Each structure stands twice: as C-alpha cells, then as structure tokens.
Amino acid sequence: MMRFSLHCDQSHEFEGWFRNNEDFDSQTARGLVQCPVCHSPKVSKALMAPSVTTGRTKEKIAATMGEAQRKLLDEMREISRKVKENADYVGDRFAEEARKIHHGETEERGIYGEATKEEITSLVEDGVEIMPLPVLPEDYN
Predict the structure, then answer these.
(1) Is the full-model pTM beyond 0.70?
(2) Per its UniProt record, what Pfam families does this chain match (predicted)?
C-alpha cells in the first residue's frame, strides 16, 4: 500500500492509501476519491517525503484518519479476521482449490490464499464466485 498526502481544491489536506499510483489515478478519474472535510472530488497529490515504517504504524495510521476512515478500516480488519477464522488457508493453490470446489471435485468450504491477476481473471470468467480479502496497511509491515 502507498500513502499519499492529498489536498482538495478548497485547500483541505488529508492522506489516502492506494495500492499504487495507477489505483489513485483510476479512482480519482471515476470520482471515488473525495475530500473528507468538504467532499470535493477535485483531489490531487501533494508533495510528500518518504516515510519510514516503525512498529507503531497501525497507531500512526489511525491518528491521520478521520473517524469514518478509522471505522471502515476497523470493519475491514474484522471481515479479514472472520474469514481467516472460518476458512482454510490454501496458499498459492487458491485458484486450483477454488476450481475444484466450483466443479464439485472436493468438499465445499471457505478458502483463502493467493492468486495471480491472470488466475483471478480466469476464475471470474469461468463463473467461480470469489471475493478478495481487504489488504490492510499492516499487511505490508
């Protein structure tokens, strides 16, 4: 995840988390990035010094977020926790296992793991129902 310092056309400053520059550009072009203060969709990146990650990243992230963002992040953490508690981790065999379940070749159960972009595209095209787990800031530490 990448953290960007952002500002809106009303000069409000805030931060946002994105997988990469392309995600920021795509979401901004679709009007999905808005100022948390005035809700303006006219948002751009501000100059930002690189950050150094420490063991207190979760607390730092929470301190820079608005209440709605903190609540959403907590909800995403809870979703991720529940899935991991109630599903089998299959690692990089996710696509293979998902197909076996879809075709009835193995028992139906919840699974999670990793898959390439190509594998995900192929699963979706074949009608296999999947949902990505939220990627959390602490997953990169």
Answers:
(1) no
(2) DUF1178
